[in-house]
């Protein structure tokens, strides 16, 4: 669980997968769809922060799903033999953070996200005319980890509670944050795989 959590925490780009919503006239109904997506590991329990954009097909699929279902796959940096490196798939649901989210929490999320993706400052929610951008939180409900290739590495499901408890880095500067999903502010040192 610690290795899976370290992999997700050290990264900031994954492959977000969703499913085309059911539509009798669409030949793609029920088919999977996946694209690269920025994320930031801003929560101590392993939840992730995203920016949902109205133009994004993944955002459309998430919002059309009654459960707001999605999955994200994160892998170790590519090498000459990527199948020997670890990767993890998180399956869960997405919550769009609305106006009821505390202003201080949104500021913490924005700071965390910008630490990982400084280029995103131009399209963050509420910035520069992107009225269809929203902050979102991905909450994993299942974790599948592949430690590498062959029988030498763990391959299988990781219990959610173990993943959530395994930590992901440095505690936030402000340990008095209101939410049990405390925001991580510090970037982690790189993890060697």
UniProtKB/TrEMBL annotation:
It comes from the Eukaryota. InterPro entries: CREG_beta-barrel (IPR055343), Split_barrel_FMN-bd (IPR012349). Residues 1-163 form the CREG-like beta-barrel domain. This is CREG-like beta-barrel domain-containing protein. It comes from Hydnum rufescens UP504.
């Amino acid at each position: 669980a610690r290795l899976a959590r370290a992999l997700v925490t050290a990264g900031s780009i994954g492959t977000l997968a969703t499913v085309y919503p059911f539509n009798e006239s669409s030949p793609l109904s029920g088919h999977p769809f996946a694209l690269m997506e920025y994320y930031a590991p801003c929560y101590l329990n392993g939840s992730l922060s995203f920016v949902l954009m109205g133009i994004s097909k993944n955002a459309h699929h998430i919002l059309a799903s009654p459960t707001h279902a999605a999955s994200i796959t994160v892998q170790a940096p590519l090498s000459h033999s990527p199948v020997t490196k670890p990767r993890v798939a998180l399956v869960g649901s997405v919550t769009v953070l609305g106006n009821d989210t505390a202003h201080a929490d949104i500021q913490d999320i924005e700071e965390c996200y910008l630490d990982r993706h400084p280029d995103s400052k131009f399209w963050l929610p509420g910035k520069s005319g992107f009225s269809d951008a929203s902050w979102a939180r991905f909450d994993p409900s299942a974790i599948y980890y592949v430690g590498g290739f062959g029988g030498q590495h763990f391959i299988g499901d990781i219990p959610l509670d173990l993943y959530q408890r395994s930590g992901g880095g440095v505690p936030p500067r402000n340990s008095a944050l209101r939410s049990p999903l405390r925001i991580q502010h510090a970037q982690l040192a790189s993890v060697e795989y």
